[in-house]
Amino acid sequence: QVQLVESGGGLVQAGGSLRLSCAASGRTFSSYALGWFRQVPGKEREFVAVISWSGGSILYADSVKGRFTISRDNAKNTVYLQMNTLKPEDTAVYYCAATTYVRVTSTPATYRYWGQGTQVTVSS
User: Fold this and answer.
1) Is residue 78 a contact partner of residue 24, using CB atoms and an 8 Å limit?
2) Chain segment 83-123, per-residue pLDDT in tens
3) DSSP secondary structure string for all residues of the chain
4) Strand 118-123 to strand 10-13: parallel, antiparallel, or no bridges (unpaired)?
5) Is 85 left (phi over 0), alpha (psi -120 to 50) or beta?
6) Is-contact 93 117, C-beta < 8 A?
7) Is 28 a residue whose pLDDT tops 90?
8) Of 27, 35, 58, 74, whose Cβ has the fewest other Cβ atoms within 10 Å?
9) Are strands 92-99 and 118-123 parallel, antiparallel or unpaired?
């Protein structure tokens, strides 16, 4: 069992930065690949980034590549999403999720555990 709690969301102007954190509970945190997704009301949940349990494999959505950086600290049971050069279209609720899939995956259905989400709003 893994419980995930996101933090770090807020309101920022376009071009600004935010760092999201996701704190996890559970003894097997390091066994899970961890991903970030986002969702806007009325739209499907969208993949943002994922990092493998070792940190050796990372995948980004094309829309955030070069602007966002995912990282993890297994000693702190925490995964991070550094978001730079934010755009109004990045506005969404951001969710942290954990999967036991061996390979990094961008499909929401493959993630077993989800956090409650944190709101990110980028003003123009």
Assistant:
1) yes
2) 999 999 999 999 999 998 878 999 999 999 999 999 999 99
3) --EEEEE--EEEETT--EEEEEEEESTTGGGSEEEEEEE-TTS--EEEEEE-TTS--EEE-TTTTTTEEEEEETTTTEEEEEE-S--GGG-EEEEEEEE--SS----GGG--EE---EEEEEE-
4) parallel
5) left
6) yes
7) no
8) 27
9) antiparallel
CB-CB neighbours of 124 under 10 Å: 9
| Residue showing tokens 């709003």 | 121
Whether 68 and 18 have beta carbons less than 8 Å apart is answered as no
What are the C-alpha distances in Å from 120 to residues 70, 81, 101? Answer: 16, 12, 28
Quickly tell me which residue has 């760092």 as its tokens. Answer: 19
Residue 23's CB is within 10 A of a number of other CB atoms, namely 16
Residue corresponding to tokens 């036991």? 100
